[in-house]
Write a structure and sequence with these properties.
Blueprint lengths: L10 E4 L5 E6 L5 H9 L3 H5 L7 H9 L6 E10 L2 E12 L8 E8 L8 H15 L4 E7 L3 H9 L3 E12 L4 E11 L2
Parallel strand pairs: 5-6
Antiparallel strand pairs: 1-2, 2-3, 3-4, 4-5, 6-8, 7-8
Helix pairs in contact: 1-3
């Protein structure tokens, strides 16, 4: 895998309402826009994430940006002549030979762009990238209470592989939460 972004990783998509969104690899110059997205998520959206993302967490992502290990894709819209990141998705790759056939997937869509088709389009885009890289499996971990996301993943072909009891200590909810591991086989 190259450390440089590949042209096939960038595309434009249209949402249900006709809005245009650019999907492209995250770059170091996106830090403030990514933080702007995460820092303005509603409590409901933050609750559906496995953990509460802090500025420190996001700074670390950018410090270690390396497409050989992790491919973050951002969803960018033009609003009032300014670019805004409204979604992120990541494929986390494994370096151990027995695990190089798969990647872990994660996605976050800003509240303002939920229920507009962006989650579906961004997930499909990431699956296409995984296929292009010759991966055999993409998996994710989703909180068991996040039924909306589970339905979306199932619609796209993901299957529940198992339930993970008390998988995360959720700092926002101040409790341990269960999660499902879901996966899609690509061959």
């Amino acid at each position: 895998m190259s450390l440089r972004a590949q042209p096939q990783w960038t595309t434009e998509v249209n949402l249900k309402d006709g809005s245009q969104v650019l999907l492209r690899p995250e770059t170091s110059s996106d830090l403030e826009m990514v933080w702007g997205m995460y820092s303005t998520l509603s409590n409901e959206s933050r609750r559906s994430l496995p953990s509460d993302y802090t500025r420190e967490t996001i700074d670390k992502w950018f410090k270690y940006l390396n497409y050989d290990y992790s491919l973050p894709i951002v969803a960018i819209v033009e609003e009032k002549s300014r670019q805004r990141i409204v979604g992120t998705a990541t494929l986390q790759f494994f370096q151990q030979p027995i695990n190089t056939h798969k990647a872990e997937f994660a996605i976050v869509i800003h509240d303002d762009y939920q229920n507009r088709g962006l989650g579906t389009l961004l997930t499909k885009h990431m699956i296409n990238i995984a296929l292009g890289k010759g991966l055999k499996k993409v998996f994710l971990v989703v909180l068991a209470e996040n039924q909306r996301a589970i339905r979306l993943y199932e619609k796209l072909g993901f299957k529940i592989e198992g339930k993970l009891l008390r998988e995360h200590y959720h700092t926002l909810m101040k409790e341990y939460v269960d999660a499902y591991r879901m996966a899609i086989l690509l061959t």
